[in-house]
Amino acid sequence: MLHDDVAKLRAERLKSGTSAVPDSFQGVTKPRVKQVLDKLGLGNRPDNVDAVYALLDDETLSWFPSAPEGTKFSDGASTAHVGCHVGILQRGGGKLDREGRDYWIK
What we know:
The protein is mainly alpha-helical. It has 5 helices and 2 strands; from the N terminus they run αββαααα. The protein starts with a helix and ends with a helix.
């Protein structure tokens, strides 16, 4: 199950002494994502910032089971993938509520 796999990934990263997610992906930080979203009137929603940040993740392998070898999260992700990345990997809680996707995926 995706939820369990992402929780395991987070635990493994933390156990190894690294953070669950780095301070930047592709040279872009969360504060920079917020700056850009502020220009669009969307920066006041943390879920939006974290969802965009998730889509920049070029370090985590794709969570699609049949993705070609070497495919990264940033190459494409489903709504469920983004919800788990934000809620579980980034925040250490549960995945984002699917019903809220109209707010956190623009």
